[in-house]
């Protein structure tokens, strides 16, 4: 797993936005169409990336919650095991903590 220490984030440089109105007279129509398509794809991928970041943060929070539950249950389990291993007043496996059964019935 990755460290939870804050990392330096790379500086995000927004993708260049070309004013297609200014390029119409200089660039062939096929290239303009391709440029517009690529711009739309970049915007779509940027939005998807932001969504994935949010999903990742949510997943990390869930992992953290589940890890704390595991830690709590592990501690509780150790305490219960410690009680069960305590000194017994009889032979190994005896049920000395239970009331004696009456055999004269």
Structural classification: mainly alpha
The helix-strand sequence is: HH
- Proportion in β-strands: under 5%
Question: What is the radius of gyration?
Answer: 33 Å
Task: List unreliable stretches of 5+ residues.
Answer: none
Overall form:
rod-shaped
Query: What is the chains' assembly state?
Result: single chain
Report helical residue fraction.
55-70%
Extended strand count: 0
Number of helices: 2
Terminus-to-terminus distance: 64 Å
Averaged pLDDT:
79
Biggest pleated-sheet summary: none
Gist?
57% of the residues lie in helices and 0% in strands. The protein is built from two helices and no strands. The two termini are 64 Å apart.
Your description of this structure?
- The protein has about 100 residues and is mostly helical.
- The chain has 2 helices and no strands.
- It has helices spanning about 20-25, 30-85.
- The protein has a domain at about 20-85.
Task: Tag the structure with descriptive keywords.
105 residues
Write the layout of secondary structure elements.
Elements: H1 20-23, H2 29-84
Region (Disordered): 78-105
